[in-house]
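Fold this sequence, please.
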Amino acid sequence: MVAASATADIAAPVPPFAPIPASRPAQQPSVFSGDVELDTLLNDGVVADAGALAQLFRGGYRNRISKLAVSAKDLQNVPEEVRQVIKLTVVALSPIELSIARDLAMRLEAPGFVGEALLVAKKMGYENYLTTYKNISKNYKDISIVETASLKVPEISAESGGDLISFS
């Protein structure tokens, strides 16, 4: 009988592909896979839509979000967690400008927020529009349209949190 229990202990080897313990978070793949530097875009001014802001916030670019502009109308689509902790530059469009933005979006066969963002970029003199929307050309007049997926993966060490609002 002693031999039987000894063989039972030996018969249960630990597999070489043991799962990662639950206490260690799994590395999530980045939505950023391109070679475009966000800092380079920021030099010429960047307008972002709500989807792009959310991706940047969750993807490691938190400390640079306050340098972006967003349409006042699209601000309602920015996640609450972003609005509460990040200072955003919000640009309001007049009713006539909103009408022009809708017309522009229809001509580009894009959602309304695309037209708004392009008009905000034009109004602010910015040269870049950062978006998650994929079915659009890479530029419109003198505004470069950049998908968030084409950004470089942010360096983790660059994350400082300096733009976060702190309440003491």
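The radius of gyration is 23 Å. Helices lie at 2-10, 38-42, 50-58, 80-85, 95-107, 112-124.
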